[in-house]
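User: ok so my PI wants both of these folded by tonight, can you help

Assistant: No problem, let's get them done. Here's the first:
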Amino acid sequence: MLNSFNRRYFILLGLLFAVVGFCHASTHPKLLVLGDSMSAEYGLPRGTGWVSLMAERLKKEKPTATVINASISGDTSFGGRSRLPALLAQHQPSIVLIELGGNDALRGLALQATRENLEFMVKASQLAGAKVVLIGMQVPPNYGPDYANQFAGLFRSVAKERKTSLVPFLLKNVADRPDPTQLFQADRIHPNEQAQPLMLENVWSVLRKLL
């Protein structure tokens, strides 16, 4: 049985390890990107997507940072929810960027299910000690204003409730241009190479506050 001195010793030792771990995360940030085709360089030359551009910028501004891109084309919020626990355990990121939900809308999945999946991913990341950037998406006008507003509101609502950072719209200044076709691939769904720096700026304006 531990006496009072030993108990104090182990408490102080635990606090020391906690501080050292916090300082290591602060000086060597590890960023995990959990996304779909928008983050997985779908249809793009390797190294030209916004996540790769972010990694290049971090090399200059935060050389000790590491970026893990765990994005998969076609992934849904449920797919991300299923994959995230193992990724958190493996990489122990200090920042998690969640860019999922767009494919939920394309597949007509229930909004409540998407919301629950986003909430799960944000909460799991926070419980693992990571800060979170929730990256919002919007749907085209042909979905109707009611659905479009409800879908966009999911990201705002989850970010507010979980007190996490929010990028309101990943494709700001890309999909909302007078002629957005100039910045999209032939499928008119996936942004082209010229759009990637604009997407990065949308994320970076929020991310840099955490770094």
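One down. Here's the second:
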Amino acid sequence: MKNNLLKKHFPVLRTENELLAEICSTPKLLTTFNSWNEEQQKEFLKICTGAKGVKMLYDAYFKEGLNPEYDPDRLSDMLSTFMKRKVKVKEVLPNDTTRLGDESSLIITDIVVELEGGTIANVEVQKIGYAYTGERASCYSADLLLRQYKRVRDQRKKLFTYKDVHPVYTIVFMENSPSIFFDYPECYVHYFQTTSNTGITLNMLQNFIFVPVDIFLTNLHNNDIRSDLDAWLTFLGCDEPEYIVQLIQKYPRFKVIYDDLYETCLNVERGMEMFSKELQILDRNTVTYMIDELQEELDTAKEELNNTKEELGTTKEQLDTTKEELGTTKEQLDTAYTTIADNEKTIAELQAELAKYKAIND
């Protein structure tokens, strides 16, 4: 069984009966447990017993396993893999980004770190991918760059030059990706940076990495774990015990992180608080996503309406032109009819004169 499969490697995992006994013996825990629907209750029990793996894209588990203040080497390792160069987390920066209103509700995890050398990285985990993905990421990257510029300028004062401003990276992990990413079913890491059309190289500072984790999982089932990149994405996105066992056997450093996470599961009250928070975030995400979708549909409908109005305007212009042409044609016809009538009158007069002339001669 899946439960036994993980329990062999993580003996601290408890059985479902043991968990339920503790929950039922504590009124506070039982009230929380009963507030969840049946599917949510099963999900919680599966995670805590090892019937399913830990959902690393849950905010609480991500921060617990990859907290740079606790162990910066873990996040450094992950960032090095996705940035394709060796980096080291120097410190966590205050997250005072200017996200507006409920914009941040789709973002489960949002960690800003400074790397050695001054580079800034913003690591996001999105439960549901944003509409207008590129536009929003650009705005928040600009905000990140401006924050760094102000901070370095204040530190350097009169010695400040723009050379003191270092690159910024926006790294976005998406559990449910926007539809455009499915146009590239074999690609699960997308890198963006500013380049010129001529080949000239300038030190442009904004970099983006988008990771559609759901697309990777589809590839995982066909290809297994073949690289460090695959290993990290399996750790982040896969909750199937068979792959978790394969992961920790091929890459033992991940077992240490799972050990810490399953130790956390021993505290049922804390585990339930973490799970309740994730459910609240998911509910808010769903509402925000629906609003996003409706807004996008509304924008599309408005655009189609404007296009229809333009087409009607063009048709009206064509109709007016046709009316003008018809008016001109009518005038030409009236003139032609008048000319014909005059000609007929002239012919009749000439015929009459001719008849008189013939009568006289006869």
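The radius of gyration is 36 Å. Strands lie at 89-92, 107-115, 120-126, 168-174, 190-193, 206-212. Good luck tonight!
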